[in-house]
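Course assignment 3, question 2. Fill in each field.
Student: A.L.
Task: Predict the tertiary structure for the chain below.
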Amino acid sequence: MKFLDAYRINPDFPNRYIPPSSLEKYLKANLSDYTAEIGKSTLGKPIYMTTIGSGPVKVLAWSQMHGNESNSTHAMLDLLETIKQHPLLHSNIFDNITLDFIFMLNPDGSETWERRNALELDLNRDFLKLETVELPLLKHIALTGNYGFALNLHEQRTIFTTDGVHPATLSFLSPSVSAEREVTAVRRKSMAVISAVYSTLKAELPSGIGRYTDEFYPTSVGDNFSKAGIPTILFEGGYYPNDPLRMVSRKYYAAALYEALHAIAGLKGDESGYETYFEIPENRETHYDVIYRNVRLNTKFDCVLDIAVQYREVYRSGDREISFMPVVAAVGDCNDRKGWKEIDCTGKKFLSSTVYPKVEEEVQFEIL
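Answer field:
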């Protein structure tokens, strides 16, 4: 049975926003025998790790290192719900691997839907200085746990496509181990897993799977784990057309996580098929959420230009779901980009309290 055919959404988490308290309640009610607290966040919130399986290959994964990237947590929650309904999917993997999954590494950022932690530090750039309390927890576990693989789970913005037309709904990377970007045995192992995921899902998600450039980032987590000898795979869940809350993306993300674990279980560290990795198209930064074309401003001279808008995801305390705030991303000639939605404003009236839209500020204009 294919995972996508069996897929079940976890009914306890219907929204993109996941309150840390709700996750904690779920883990204690459903996975208490397999879950342990590994530490606390800056603000004292517990951070949990759940262990599943009994196989010889150990895999470490973590979600919401960036607090506003919840699809990584959804992927694991949905995977657990799916294999609960279809036990054969469980035995196909977890007889061969042991997965340690750290849920919501950054619960403070997750609470407020912020990328960074409570000190406004990026956990993914804290590998060397260790200025946060959260990243050292992950680093210690990873470097002392004898792991065969590490899965670094993230989400990406709507700006990325695989070919300038189709959104990058899923993207992957085998991180480099140095600035030379050499293809080492460690990288070939992670490339083999990514290749297996791509080969399985490309028919289900044609033109929707990309890979990131392998530029070396000396302070990032994935690059340093690879450098330390742990084959590491970066996951990036992205945009799917007309899916702002990423419910469709969530399904594909869960399938990608399952297929990666399935490949790890089957390959057992073998590098077979890694060359397919280089067939995956590289991500391209080509889109805005909306572009207003041919906007005539209320100036004393003839001024016609484009206005590009990106939606900023925000969480307002007490809400059950995130909201979307339109923000001006660029003003001028935007012909080097496309919009997922484009509006031709020829012959229409621009109404605004300012003559020019202000970049990086909330949209304060109307087109009539």
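Instructor remarks: The chain has a mean pLDDT of 97. Residues 296 and 304 are 4 Å apart (CA to CA).
Grade: pending
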